[in-house]
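Input.
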Amino acid sequence: MARPLRLVDEFDGGLGWMEEERIARTSHALVGEDGGVWLVDPVEPSDNLSQRLSGLGEVRGVIQLLDRHARDCALLAARFGVPHHAAFAGAADVPFDVVPVVSWWKWREAALWWPERRVLVCADALGTLGYFRAPGERIGVHPLLRLFPPKRLRAVEPQRILVGHGPGVHDGAAAALAEALRTSRRRLPAALVGRSRRTA
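Output.
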């Protein structure tokens, strides 16, 4: 069965599509400065979304940010005849800055930083679904990273944050990121309590 998808995160530099699930996966297409399109952690788009993607420009590559969630990266790279870049392993010749954020056993993850547009793209390190957030948070650090939030993300001040789970943050993003990182440890108990209530 086809997964229900909806359009999210549409802006002049690209768009995203998200599954209608409890732990929904969000995929993105970014339009680089040269007009090429880069798919980031994509799940296969529906027919209507494929038409929207074709209108963005020529797909130049597929970028995988997280080692343990390949999604449909290989499938779509083969379909478009473009490279599949494993950014989590540092193997990424892409027009964005690759920022390593997690390097654990069975969890390697990188983020993309697009300095020209001040766009930050994360896979699992940050999210906006209830699973990630403590009450009152707009964006939250992954529950397993809250004790040791990714320090390298402190170095960026995004105007827009796109995440692998949930819709992005398109206003006040730098402040939301700074607060999420600063209060990550302190809000861990509240995040766990809120998560248990949401999944009960």
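Residues 196-200 have pLDDT under 50 and may be disordered.
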